[in-house]
RNA sequence: GCCGUGGUGGCGGAAUUGGCAUACGCGUACGGUUCAGAACCGUAUCUCGCAAGAGUUGAGAGUUCAAAUCUCUCCCACGGCACCA
């Protein structure tokens, strides 16, 4: 037989698939469905990237396997075609994005077909196609109508180079994500989407989906939910009140000053009647001019100005406390104002130290703290020891400075998951060791700064010893969850324990502080305490203090989505502004049931039947310096009639961000050419949710969150049948260049898949990309290693020559069945590298057989088919099959046949391998022991001595302890 | 600083209910084939040691008959977030 000629074979089958379209699917209610999805690419001018190939091949394998298992599989492809590169290219060359995009798409499509992906090409979509973005605009209008889109003047991140407003998500370390230049702040009218209204559900519903933990964690962090309270502070000389948000209402008695963000509205026109307003105004101006990097680049050095002539009243202590403006407080979080509790917050502590403000502790860990090492630095792990009512103890750890972030309930601050589990256990069983409100003492900050260990110094140091009922022994870290303890005195402990490695837990039993330099405890208690809340646990205190002085409140880090781009190459926002209607709505002459119109007076939606609002052809793509879209220059497009009053009106010239089209594309795949609706209910019900969605980690906080938001909204208004779009999400690692760096044009280390295909073939490329390393980890490309994959396929090719009707030898049959199992399971777990490895092992074994049994070879080909579809198809045909290998059912395995009848048992003496015995799998311990003790290799090490103990793992191992 | 992931031969990596560490592939060496080379085939390939043997999974300790895997104390790399009260 001829040599393996990948060019001929791949061309032949690609042509056949093009004609026969085996992967175009129709909805078939009688067949179970599988919706397999990859993130559709942005069709850049650079062509397909090896990273695309890795991800698409992986899910292609999954899709092909699912088809072989009898599922009706939807594996679609499309183009996320709006985006900056095409527009920037247009600015440079004058070539319209429409043209460059079309060209790029053609290239991508050709490249993909050369790799043999089993996409359903008849469902191809393109976000920049008017028949597609018509529906993007439609969805936007629904958001508008439901009051989730609003125009707001707000400081936005402005990139002076790209001349574009950026979403927070697009600002990386204060720099523009695209060009890396420092981002400025500008006030700009922007369309916003109220994603924060969905914050809670976006967080909560993560429990219902199958995403990797790290994605859930990242999303949760991004949403940043925190529960707390809003508390009002009265101001001395005005009627004004200032609201603060805090997660620690239990520390209210320790609030010794207030801080407002520079942008806080109460500061705008000296409403507070500050006597040093000039100074304050100057500070605010300075803060505004600072970019985000500058604010953080100054390190942790806090700045601020006291507002003279006004004071706030702490509602709990009734004390008058100073107010500051400082830029360490952010406007857009909480209420833009905080109550500062320096004793229990690092930042407040730092500020208070610098400005010499009182620091007042109000929370005390109950059972004290334990230091693993007596000389431990402040930032090391500290441990709280809690004693339960039944006498058992728990050791809880956190990594914080105990006197600054006093642990709430022992662990809340910075606890690990393990500790959380312990806490839950605790809460169930009930223990008496939560932090309590104590009568606090006031110390002056200068004193505090000099004596940081002062709180520790107040405790006595008896020793806690873990004691087994029978024999006392020092605490073993392994069993530190729950155990019986007794309490010993320090002297007793010294005698019972050896101090090796200081592995002795010192319990710092809580005592009332003895005395203080200058202030006795008794005196301190007189000065201030937590009043009627003394003695409560911190969590109880939170509840009660919130009830008494404020209201419960939940805050999120997530901010509303800046949805406007002053650009050309995007979906036009389908709204017009009508001066006339604006006036009538504000005056109340015009009533609208449309929440968007009410909320944004004068903004009128383009009627749905007039959609799409098509992107007009322009001559200049350059955005203006004032930040307006190039669309603003086309007066015949801008000037329209108002859909409501038919008066003169102007179109919105901003376009949508890239994220718009990709927020719902997976819905369109279910019904891609429907002119009536974005997708029919029927088709959505058949295909949704997406069963398996793979993509990059870089999209976890942007695309993934945005599309979940849109989906939930569409669910709420009754257009999609599921609350979550994706049942399962996985992510791929990045393919790096062989130098371990990111592939980039400027570094000249980009690998072009076309070249690899030319030299080695698409099948080799696919196999290599799967074999190169764990799918979810980054791997560097290697041109040297790819030959291994090529050789593997060549050997499969050659083996076909020796295929005969031949029986399966017994040990080989076991391997065959084990291989089916391994490959099947590995695909499901995305362990493609070991799946390929198993195929290699199987091939190696087959090569040692005198003849290649037909049956075994056919199974090999079927297992190989998802990975290397072309060669598999060709060999399948050579075996005389008329129908495609991709239509053949997935091989099944027999668990019985996997277990070998005989096995090699490892014999250890004292845990070291000394010999091997070949025996039947079901041999008993006694039989094997007898055999083993006759072996010279074993005798040498047992020395004929008595075997004290035997450990036996059936079918695997025998360990003799002498 | 916080959160997450990872650290195993010359290289990519395998092995996780604790049970033969280094599967599979690359590279390298030697041999075969060849006029020669490429390709291909075979053998070898963690370290020390002639060998018997001993050591080895980022470092150190612990638990165990047995640890890459579990526990503790550290170190390093990568990714994300970063004054979020």
Automatic annotation (TrEMBL):
| Residue window of motif 'KMSKS' region | 742-746
Per the record, the domain of life is Bacteria
Q: Which reaction does it catalyse?
A: tRNA(Leu) + L-leucine + ATP = L-leucyl-tRNA(Leu) + AMP + diphosphate
Q: Which SUPFAM superfamilies match?
A: Anticodon-binding domain of a subclass of class I aminoacyl-tRNA synthetases, Nucleotidylyl transferase, Nudix, ValRS/IleRS/LeuRS editing domain
Q: Read off the Pfam families from this record.
A: Anticodon_1 (PF08264), NUDIX (PF00293), tRNA-synt_1 (PF00133), tRNA-synt_1_2 (PF13603), tRNA-synt_1g (PF09334)
Query: Where do the annotations place ATP binding?
Result: 745
Q: What is its EC number?
A: 6.1.1.4
**Subcellular location as annotated:** Cytoplasm
UniProt keyword terms in alphabetical order: Aminoacyl-tRNA synthetase, ATP-binding, Cytoplasm, Hydrolase, Ligase, Nucleotide-binding, Protein biosynthesis
Q: Which CDD domains does the record match to this protein?
A: Anticodon_Ia_Leu_BEm (cd07958)
Q: Where is the Nudix hydrolase domain?
A: 377-510
**Any single GO CC term annotated in Swiss-Prot or TrEMBL for this entry:** cytosol
Tell me the GO BP annotations in alphabetical order: leucyl-tRNA aminoacylation
In Swiss-Prot or TrEMBL terms, this protein is called Leucine--tRNA ligase
Instruction: Name the source organism.
Output: Candidatus Kaiserbacteria bacterium RIFCSPLOWO2_01_FULL_51_21
User: Source gene?
Assistant: leuS
């Amino acid at each position: 037989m001829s040599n393996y000629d990948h060019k001929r074979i791949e061309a032949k089958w690609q042509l056949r698939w093009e004609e026969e379209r085996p992967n175009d699917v129709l909805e078939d209610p009688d067949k179970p469905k599988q919706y397999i999805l990859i993130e559709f690419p942005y069709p850049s001018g650079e062509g397909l990237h090896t990273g695309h190939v890795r991800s698409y091949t992986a899910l292609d394998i999954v899709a092909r396997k699912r088809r072989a298992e009898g599922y009706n599989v939807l594996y679609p492809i499309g183009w996320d075609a709006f985006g900056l590169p095409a527009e920037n290219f247009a600015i440079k060359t004058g070539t319209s994005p429409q043209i460059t995009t079309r060209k790029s798409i053609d290239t991508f499509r050709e490249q993909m077909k050369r790799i043999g992906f089993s996409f359903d090409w008849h469902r191809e979509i393109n976000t920049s196609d008017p028949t597609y973005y018509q529906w993007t605009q439609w969805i936007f209008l629904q958001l508008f109508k439901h009051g989730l889109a609003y125009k707001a003047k707000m400081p936005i991140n402005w990139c002076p180079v790209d001349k574009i407003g950026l979403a927070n998500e697009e600002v990386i370390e204060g720099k523009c994500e695209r060009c890396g230049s420092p981002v400025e702040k500008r006030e700009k009218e922007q369309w916003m989407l109220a994603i924060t209204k969905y914050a809670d559900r976006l967080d909560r519903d993560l429990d219902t989906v199958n995403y990797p933990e790290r994605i859930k964690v990242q999303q949760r962090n991004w949403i940043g939910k925190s529960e707390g309270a809003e508390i009002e502070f009265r101001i001395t000389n005005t009627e004004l009140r200032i609201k603060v948000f805090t997660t620690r209402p239990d520390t209210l008695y320790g609030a010794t000053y207030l801080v407002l963000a520079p942008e806080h509205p109460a500061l705008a026109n000296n409403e507070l009647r500050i006597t040093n307003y000039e100074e304050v105004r100057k500070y605010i101006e300075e803060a505004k001019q600072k970019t985000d990097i500058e604010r953080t680049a100054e390190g942790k050095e806090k700045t601020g100005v006291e507002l003279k002539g006004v004071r706030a009243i702490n509602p709990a202590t009734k004390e008058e406390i100073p107010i500051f403006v400082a830029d360490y407080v952010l406007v857009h979080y909480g209420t833009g104002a905080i109550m500062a509790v320096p004793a229990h917050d690092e930042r407040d502590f730092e500020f208070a130290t610098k400005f010499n403000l009182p620091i007042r502790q109000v929370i005390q860990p109950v059972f004290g703290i334990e230091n693993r090492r007596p000389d431990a630095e402040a930032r090391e792990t500290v441990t709280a020891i809690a004693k339960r009512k039944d006498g058992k103890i728990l050791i809880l750890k956190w990594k914080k400075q105990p006197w600054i972030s006093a642990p709430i309930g022992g662990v809340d601050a910075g606890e690990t998951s393990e500790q959380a589990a312990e806490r839950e256990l605790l809460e169930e069983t009930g223990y008496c060791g939560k932090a309590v409100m104590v009568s606090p003492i006031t110390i002056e900050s200068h004193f505090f700064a000099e004596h940081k260990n002062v709180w520790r110094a107040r405790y006595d140091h008896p020793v806690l010893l873990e004691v087994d009922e029978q024999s006392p022994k020092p605490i073993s870290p392994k069993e530190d969850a729950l155990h019986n303890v007794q309490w010993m005195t320090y002297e007793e402990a010294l005698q019972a324990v050896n101090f090796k490695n200081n592995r002795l837990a010192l319990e710092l039993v809580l005592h009332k502080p003895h005395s203080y330099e200058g202030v006795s405890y008794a005196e301190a208690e007189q000065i201030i305490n937590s009043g009627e809340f003394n003695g409560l646990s911190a969590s109880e205190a939170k509840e009660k203090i919130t009830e008494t002085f404020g209201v419960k409140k939940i805050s999120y880090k997530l901010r509303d989505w800046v949805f406007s781009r002053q650009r050309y190459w995007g979906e036009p926002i389908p709204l017009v502004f009508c001066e006339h209607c604006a006036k009538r709505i504000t005056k109340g002459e015009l009533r609208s049931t449309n929440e968007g119109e009410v909320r944004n007076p004068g903004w009128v939606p383009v009627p749905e039947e007039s959609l799409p609002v098509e992107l007009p052809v322009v001559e200049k793509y350059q955005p203006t310096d004032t930040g307006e879209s190039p669309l603003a220059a086309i007066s015949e497009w801008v000037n329209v009639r108002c859909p409501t009053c038919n008066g003169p009106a102007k179109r919105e010239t901003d376009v949508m961000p890239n994220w718009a089209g990709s927020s719902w594309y997976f819905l369109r795949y279910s019904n891609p050419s429907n002119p009536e609706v974005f997708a029919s209910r029927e088709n959505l019900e058949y295909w949704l949710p997406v069963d398996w969605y793979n993509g990059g980690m870089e999209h976890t906080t942007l695309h993934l969150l945005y599309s979940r938001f849109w989906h939930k909204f569409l669910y709420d208004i009754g257009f999609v049948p599921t609350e979550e779009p994706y049942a399962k999400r996985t992510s791929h690692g990045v393919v790096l260049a062989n130098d371990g760096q990111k592939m980039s044009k400027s570094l000249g280390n980009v690998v072009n898949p076309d070249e690899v295909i030319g030299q080695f073939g698409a099948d080799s490329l696919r196999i290599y990309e799967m074999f190169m390393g764990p799918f979810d980890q980054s791997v560097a490309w290697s041109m040297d290693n790819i030959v291994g994959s090529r050789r593997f396929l060549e050997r499969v090719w050659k083996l076909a020559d020796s295929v005969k009707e031949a029986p399966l030898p017994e040990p080989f049959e076991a391997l065959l069945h084990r291989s089916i199992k391994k490959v099947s399971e590995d695909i499901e777990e995305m362990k493609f590298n070991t799946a390929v490895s198993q195929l290699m092992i199987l091939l190696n074994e087959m090569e040692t057989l005198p003849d290649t049994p037909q049956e075994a070879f056919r199974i090999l080909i079927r297992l190989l088919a998802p990975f290397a579809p072309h060669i598999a198809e060709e060999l399948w045909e050579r075996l005389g099959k008329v129908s495609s290998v991709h239509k053949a059912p997935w091989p099944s395995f027999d668990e019985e046949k996997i277990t070998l009848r005989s096995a090699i048992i490892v014999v250890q003496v004292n845990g070291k391998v000394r010999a091997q015995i070949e025996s039947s799998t079901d041999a008993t311990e006694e039989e094997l022991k007898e055999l083993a003790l006759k072996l010279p290799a074993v005798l040498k090490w047992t020395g004929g001595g008595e075997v004290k103990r035997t450990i036996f793992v059936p079918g695997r191992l025998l360990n003799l302890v002498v």
